[in-house]
Amino acid sequence: MEPVRRALASTPGSAVALILLHSCILAPVQDSSKRDTGVMSQAEAGLRARKKQQTRQALIEAALRLYRERGLDGVTVAEIAKEANVAPRTFFGYFETKEDAFLGRGDDRIDLLIEAIRSRDRRTPILTAVRPVLLQDREPHRRQQQPANPSLSELLHHPSIAGRLRERWNRWEDQLAGAIARDVGAGPGDPEPRVVAAAITGAIRVAAAAALEQPRRRRQIAERAFELLSSGLSRYGAKGSMPREKPTGGEPRHT
Predict the structure, then answer these.
(1) Residue 182: CA atoms inside 13 Å, Cβ hemisphere, count?
(2) Average pLDDT, the chain
(3) Do 160 and 200 belong together in one domain?
(4) What's the pLDDT tens digit per position in 14-56?
(5) Looking at the structure, do residues 201 and 77 belong to the same domain, yes or no?
(6) Domain range spanning residue 57?
(7) H/E/C letters for each residue in 109-133?
(8) For residue 189, with 0-12 CB atoms within 10 Å meaning exposed, 13-18 middle and 19 or more buried, which class applies?
(9) Is residue 188 part of a domain?
(10) What is the rounded CA–CA span in Å between residue 221 and residue 217?
(11) H or E stretch at 196
(12) pLDDT of residue 252
């Protein structure tokens, strides 16, 4: 700034006035340009996110269409990619294996659970917030003229899909535990977020098993599992809830 001051000091008054006027005009334009660039960057980021979601959904739908036509063994990653109008390498940007494309709805369910936790009223217990997501119908009714996608119970009859689902439970549990820990401000090593995440994913596992063994009772069994969780976790994560008393000796107390 000092060189600028010296330059202005040696400049005739009319020239100084022109310089100051130029600065007054240019500065708002530059600021406006920066704001416009920021808005455009946000819009571009949103557009990229939507395109990624659309591509992911297209791959899932392509996999399900091919499954209806050929069965699981008749479907390859290359064919799924071709059906979705993308390159095979693009497929692996979204899914690690062919089976993952059929389990993509599980990823969506975990994302919905995390969003329900993040956006809830802080006076609402976590378990109450996630209950609608856990119990919502995973196989919505379709019009008769539309071919139905394979149900979870049907997909789980394939050992490769069932095995891959078991591998993914740990990943989903990690994601859920991390979201819960951030939400409640848990410190490093606090076991409670992991316990709650394991309980929630355990309920989902029970519902998945029910879908395989008793498809018509899946929701009923999920509700029973949820009620069992609620009896012990109903106030977890609710702001202002009373802290649990620690046992002072003897047999541990159960609340």
Answers:
(1) 11
(2) 78
(3) yes
(4) 554 545 545 555 555 555 555 555 666 777 777 888 899 899 9
(5) no
(6) 51-96
(7) HHHHHHHHHHHCCCCCCHHHHHHHH
(8) exposed
(9) yes
(10) 6
(11) helix 192-213
(12) 44
